[in-house]
Design brief:
Blueprint (H helix, E strand, L loop, with lengths): L5 E4 L1 H8 L3 H16 L9 E2 L8 E6 L2 E7 L4 E8 L6
Parallel strand pairs: 1-5
Antiparallel strand pairs: 2-3, 3-4, 4-5
């Protein structure tokens, strides 16, 4: 897959991000930079969800935190949410 050229942020993502501890925010920014270069970099553990969210993907920020996203047309993504495994609900 090519580099991500555009990242959009949902209101829910921005709200969830604002509630996280500062060190998690910093780590999420670092992982987002890796993601932009290669969304399937092994350090991200990117995987597709199943069931009702079969068009949705997640990648790992740190062990307990994930970013949920969808691929839009082209090399664009929309970040939907960030948090613990609660993002799967």
């Amino acid at each position: 897959m090519k580099r991500i050229v555009s990242v959009e942020y949902s209101r829910k993502f921005l709200k969830s991000l604002s509630r996280l501890p500062a060190h998690i925010v910093v780590q999420s920014q670092e992982k987002e930079n890796i993601f932009k270069n290669n969304p399937f970099d092994p350090r991200l553990a990117t995987h597709k969800l199943h069931g009702g969210e079969k068009d949705t993907w997640t990648f790992s920020v740190v062990h307990a935190y994930r970013i949920k996203f969808v691929f839009l047309n082209g090399n664009k993504v929309l970040l939907l949410d960030i948090g613990t495994h609660e993002v799967y609900k």
